[in-house]
Design goal:
With about 350 residues, this protein is α+β, with helices and mostly antiparallel strands. It has helices spanning about 10-15, 20-25, 30-40, 45-60, 70-85, 100-110, 125-130, 260-265, 280-290, 315-325; strands at about 135-140, 145-150, 155-160, 160-165, 175-185, 195-200, 200-205, 210-215, 220-225, 230, 235-240, 245-250, 255, 270-275, 295, 305-310, 330-335, 335-340.
Length: about 350
């Protein structure tokens, strides 16, 4: 981003005219998510203004809109036109395109007209269904990890090829997030508002704890401290205590066991761990860890397995280490690795 753009000084109308901000709201991606989530974290006092701007832009796409009387619409429009001819403190004029006027009109409607019940012509139940909760998404591609904080101060380590979605603000009786892949959570304690993670058919409920949660071939939750409850779609609930790990396999098998912390969540400290992994599993782990594609014609024995630990090592050193136990040749070109028999 151009450092000359000082978002810290932006008001709502400035965000409505900023293409980079609009792109984030309409089509969030890796670059925009990283920038705006970090910006919100560094500027918490500006969160309400940014949140209002997001809501306005999101509302433009609603298929069903509230209907205003002609007089109310004209009054709002005249206010916008008057605003568009005012001069900013820095000497610039506001520039309003057609859809920006509509967005500003929506803002005035939801910030003022709503207060005098113009929008409460519909019944209460329908009004509640129309309320908008703004969700943010962090989507990590393969080869990348990301550490950040949620609005309540909960710290999250998000692994590669994983994603998490959470509301702009935790309102209500629960702090609910959704995730796929793998993440380590250090949850801020709040006895009055449980922290809830929705992941496929499972729901994890905690009050304040640290744990690693993974949803891949199997569902795995390893609890470091605190207490968690895992509920499934059938209503069954399993409680975990510190140093316990829950594994729910796709075939329905459920087990509780102890775990090795380095093996389970050493990834957040840059430890790549293999433990009696099959050759396909070794390939999968390296592809996810380094963000590469591996093409292999290597022939291995049926019972081939590999164990090893690598701390913050580059791809070529990992390949060299694995090749010691199973001799092979490899070539690395850009993001593609080719493995073959010597």
């Amino acid at each position: 981003m151009d450092e000359k753009i000082k978002y810290i000084d932006f008001e709502i109308e400035d965000f409505l005219n900023d293409e980079f901000f609009i792109q984030w709201v309409k089509n969030p991606g890796e670059e925009t998510n990283h920038f705006w989530l970090k910006w919100i974290e560094n500027n918490p006092d500006r969160r309400p203004i940014l949140q209002k701007a997001r809501e306005i832009i999101a509302m433009i796409d609603y298929k069903e809109r509230y209907v205003l009387s002609d007089q109310v619409y004209m009054d709002l429009y005249e206010n916008i036109v008057e605003k568009s001819h005012q001069t900013r403190p820095d000497g610039r004029y506001f520039q309003w395109s057609g859809w920006h006027k509509a967005a500003a009109i929506l803002f005035l409607v939801f910030s003022t007209v709503y207060g005098i019940d113009v929008l409460n012509k519909r019944n209460k139940e329908e009004s509640e269904n129309q309320q908008v909760t703004t969700w943010l998404t962090v989507d990590n591609p393969a080869g990348q990890k990301y550490k950040f904080q949620l609005p309540d101060g909960t710290r999250v380590h998000l692994n590669a090829a994983s994603s998490i979605a959470y509301p702009q603000n935790f309102d209500g009786e629960k702090r609910t997030v959704r995730m796929q892949g793998e993440a380590f959570f250090d949850v801020t304690k709040d006895p009055n508002r449980p922290f809830v993670i929705q992941i496929d058919n499972n729901q994890v409920t905690v009050l304040g704890t640290s744990f690693n949660l993974k949803n891949g071939e199997d569902f795995e939750l390893a609890l470091v401290e605190g207490k968690v409850e895992v509920a499934d779609s059938t209503g069954g609930v399993i409680t975990l205590l510190p140093n316990e790990m829950l594994i729910k396999r796709k075939n329905g098998e459920v087990t509780k066991t102890e775990f090795d912390p380095l093996e389970i969540f050493g990834w957040k400290d840059q430890y790549l761990i293999f433990k009696d992994d099959s050759y396909p599993e070794v390939i999968r782990k390296m592809e996810t860890w380094f963000g590469v594609t591996i093409n292999s014609t290597l022939k291995v024995d049926k019972g081939w397995a590999y164990s090893g630990s690598y701390h913050n090592k580059p791809l070529n050193q990992v390949l060299d280490g694995i090749s010691i136990s199973s001799e092979f040749d490899y070539k690395i070109k850009d993001k593609t690795v080719t493995i073959s028999n010597p």
